[in-house]
Amino acid sequence: MHSEAVASRSAEHRDSARESRSGTPQLDAVSLAIIEQLQEDGRRPYAAIGKAVGLSEAAVRQRVQKLLDQGVMQIVAVTDPLTVGFRRQAMVGIHVEGDVESVADALTVMPDVEYVVMTAGSFDILAEIVCEDDDHLLDVINRRIRALPGVRSTESFVYLKLKKQTYMWGTR
């Protein structure tokens, strides 16, 4: 009986986050449940998560670490930018001539750029920028983004008020 339980746990651990042929981790139902628990409360104790998903605290700790190491998730403090000194946010739509990916890569290393997505639509790239004020925003757009090789034009959408920001889309 003991060897069956050990074999079952060993198989469960192997299946928790296998990689598919494309290199994307394949997550089992327990790992997905752990992610959902942490989306609700990133500070939820491992013991409470374990109780909710049917694992020990140690097993949850190992799974969470594996999910972090694989880049499946991050655990971070989400702030309201206004309360921590960033009074200007904007989404910048970018038209690119040539290699879109090289422009996207250059944007990802800019500290003021928080979000970069390559799109199929009227823009090639959307980049979210968080700045201290309008002068800072102008500097980022004019001197850094527009100066990148391949950037043809930009259009800025300045945020007037943030009404909703959530990271609780669950799992599938």
How does this structure look, described?
The protein is α+β, with helices and mostly antiparallel strands and 172 residues long. It is 40% helix and 21% strand. It contains six helices and six strands, in the order H-E-E-H-H-H-E-H-E-E-H-E. The strands form two sheets. Strands 4-5-3-6 form a four-stranded antiparallel beta sheet. It has a two-stranded antiparallel ribbon with strand order 1-2. A hairpin with a 5-residue loop joins strand 1 and strand 2 (25-27). Helix 2 (29-40) packs across helix 3 (46-53) and helix 3 crosses helix 4. The radius of gyration is 21 Å and the shape is elongated. The protein starts with a helix and ends in a 14-residue tail after the last strand. The model is unreliable at 1-17 (pLDDT under 50).
Main structural class: alpha+beta
Termini gap: 34 Å
- The count of helical stretches stands at 6
Radius of gyration: 21 Å
Largest sheet: 4 strands, antiparallel
What is the average of the pLDDT values?
Answer: 86
Q: How much strand content do the residues show?
A: 15-25%
**Uncertain runs:** 1-17
Query: Helix and strand succession?
Result: HEEHHHEHEEHE
**What is the approximate shape?**
elongated
User: Using DSSP, what is the number of strands?
Assistant: 6
Sequence of strands across the biggest β-sheet? 4-5-3-6
Helical content, roughly?
Answer: 25-40%
